Amino acid sequence: MKELKYLNVLYISNxxxxxxxxxxxxxxxxxxxxxxxxxDATNVLNTKKINIILSEHNNIQxxxxxxxxxxxxxxxxxxxxxxxxxxxxxxKIKLLKFLQMPITKEELIASLKTCIQTDDANxxxxxxxxxxxxxxxxxxxxxxxxxxxxxxxxENDFFKFMVNKTNNTVTYKEINExxxxxxxxxxxxxxxxxxxxxxxxKDLIKNISGIGYRFNLN
Length: 218
Fold this sequence. Notes:
- It is a single chain.
- This protein is α/β, with parallel strands linked by helices.
- Helices cover 41% and strands 23% of the residues.
- The protein has a five-stranded parallel sheet with strand order 2-1-3-4-5, sandwiched between helices. The chain has a four-stranded antiparallel sheet with strand order 6-7-8-9, with helices on one face.
- Helix 3 runs parallel beside helix 4 (84-93).
């Protein structure tokens, strides 16, 4: 990943068992720092410019304090057990993503790409919708009044893709290529949109007749 060579990464480990992750970051990051505990991590953060933190320590309060000092630093927490409460807390902290352990190389790269895209755009990963709905772009979680709304993989892929195109019309062709990889039927798309409207609200997804769909967040 070329973009990573411009960023400094801090890895906070519990047991250093994520060898693939450590090796990838060590090779690809501009500067790579690794610590075993939060105290040592604090020393690194106080003396070095860190762009991304990847931590096996799931200490929400610690990362809340980091966020008070640095609004842009990207934080990834690797955990064996991710509860809904963690996701809600992540939304409060912002720019915080959870990864299920053990981490695969594919998941790591995808998460890092999201971090880099968000950093480049200097935007929040928390998207406020209408009627009490909120979408966490990092963790790909939809909530209403702090309760998680379960989405299928296809629904979530569509939701995340459309959020990136907010207030722009997305053609059927674009949806087909990016969500169905060329195998979409119009019935399948209509069914997906219908289910998402049930789980959210009708005005969120607008059909542009003969062209495609538009996500209206305003």
